[in-house]
Design goal:
Pfam families: CMAS
GO molecular function, one term: methyltransferase activity
Mean pLDDT: 90
Oligomer: single chain
Number of domains: 2
Family: Belongs to the CFA/CMAS family.
Number of helices: 19
CATH superfamily of the largest domain: Vaccinia Virus protein VP39
Shape: elongated
Distance between the termini: 56 Å
Order of helices and strands: HEEEHHEHHHHHHHHEHEHEEHEHHEHHHE
Organism: Nonomuraea cavernae
Keywords: Lipid metabolism, Methyltransferase, S-adenosyl-L-methionine, Transferase
Length: 419
């Protein structure tokens, strides 16, 4: 069987994708608007040794597969691979189709991949040193690169679009403001922002609500960028961002805690201690807003820990259902006061990030290298598919630490229309 036809068979002949290969073979419909080009035998070896999502990703990141046309369109049509991966039977069939020779080739993964053997040398899962290295792997790529992709807000979490035609900056402002209103922030309050990134929430809370904010991040580059932004905004008396593990924060008595995009890095085994730590940082009546990506249900057996996202993007990342997170919070004393799913908003956020990367592609490649730029293009387009097809969700959960008399301090009805 011709090589292009084998790839078409693996991806699915109904996908409306064209294929061409270095052996001169072609497959798929004539005039298809997207085409997958197999450029060398190394691409075949990658697929033979890891049939499905991971093998295709390795071949693309390393430059042995090229994509002609829109990445999102390609992945949307390949959604069974990009969001579910192939079944064991399909993987065996792929190996048989490709033959034994590609299995015997020595083809190390691209350098952008973080393998389990590398992580194991850094300690047990979610040990402080290992967490620090994992965060460094993803977030210390280049502040300039992130600025091109994320835009002026430097917000690397799901935005909240007040209207379909809202800009990304408007939507990120709306997200931070929604968090602030849910937390009931007022001048003179103290806010702890764990996993603060480039300081977007800290800056927003200090500037617009007069709150004293401490943000912490495990990324040195993020902390340096945030501290500079705080100084440029003249907010040094209100906001501070530290390069440190949230577990090393010694201050207590906060009026509010925001956790925006950190829970995914905590690990299922550590959720109880995580929420207990945050509970202990709050005053009676204090609120926690937890904003994170989740699994759609609690029935999935696993979250593809050996797949592309875990190896290239978020090593050691773990997702749980919102029901599981709420139960953990409740069992530790939080009263849950509000919850909402922002799944469609994250798909829209990612579309803006993909457009930003496309618009600055040549500069991005010059800054971080072709392989890393391709990781980002692939991961963000694939995540759009995941959120659109309800393979992943984004939830905000608001919890309150009641006082000794059981008072929450939450108004009978939320003010200023949240959500």
């Amino acid at each position: 069987m011709a090589l292009a036809s084998i790839f078409e068979k693996i991806v699915g002949p109904e996908a409306n994708i064209a294929f061409m290969a270095y052996d001169g073979s072609k497959a798929g419909p004539d005039g298809a608007d997207v085409c997958l080009e197999v450029k060398s035998p190394i691409a075949v070896a990658y697929l033979a040794q890891a049939p499905g999502e991971l093998g295709l990703a390795r071949a693309y990141v390393s430059g042995h597969i090229d994509i002609h046309g829109d990445m999102y369109t390609l992945l949307d049509r390949m959604w069974n691979i990009t969001t579910n991966d192939l079944s064991t039977a399909e993987k065996l069939a792929a190996v048989r189709s490709l033959g034994m020779k590609p299995l015997l080739m020595r083809v190390p993964p691209p350098p952008q991949e973080m393998r389990q053997s590398m992580l194991a040398r850094m300690g047990s899962r979610h040990a402080k040193q290992r967490d620090a290295e994992v965060i460094h792997h993803h977030y210390d790529v280049s502040n300039r690169f992130y600025a091109w992709v994320l835009g002026p807000s430097m917000a690397y979490t799901c935005a909240v679009f007040p209207s379909e035609d809202a800009s990304l900056e408007e939507a990120q402002f709306a997200k931070f403001d929604l968090v602030a209103r849910k937390l009931g922030l007022k001048p003179g309050m103290r806010l702890l922002d764990v996993g603060c990134g480039w300081g977007g929430m800290a800056l927003h809370a200090a500037e617009h609500y007069g709150v004293q904010v401490l943000g912490v991040t495990l990324s040195r580059q993020q902390a340096e960028w945030a501290q500079k932004a705080i100084a440029e905004a003249g907010l040094q008396d209100l906001a501070e961002v530290r390069f440190m593990d949230y577990r090393d924060v010694t201050e207590t008595g906060f009026d509010a805690v925001s956790s925006i995009g950190l829970t995914e890095h905590i690990g299922a085994a550590n959720l109880s201690s995580y929420f207990a730590f945050l509970y202990g940082k709050l005053k009676p009546g204090g609120r926690l807003l937890n904003h994170c990506i989740t699994r759609p249900t609690g029935t999935e057996k696993t979250f593809n820990k050996g797949g592309f996202i875990n190896r290239y993007v978020f090593p050691d990342g773990e997702l749980e259902s919102v029901g599981h997170l709420i139960r953990q919070m409740e069992d530790l004393g939080f009263e849950i006061r509000h919850e909402e799913n922002l799944r469609e908003h994250y798909a829209e956020t990612l579309r803006h990030w993909c457009a930003n990367l496309d618009a600055t592609w040549e500069d991005a490649v010059q800054e971080v290298g072709m392989g890393t730029a391709r990781v980002w293009a692939l991961y963000m387009a694939g995540c759009i598919v995941g959120f659109e097809r309800n393979k992943v969700q984004l939830h905000q959960v608001l919890g309150v630490k009641l006082d000794d008399a059981g008072h929450s301090g939450v108004p009978l009805r939320p003010s200023r229309d949240w959500p």
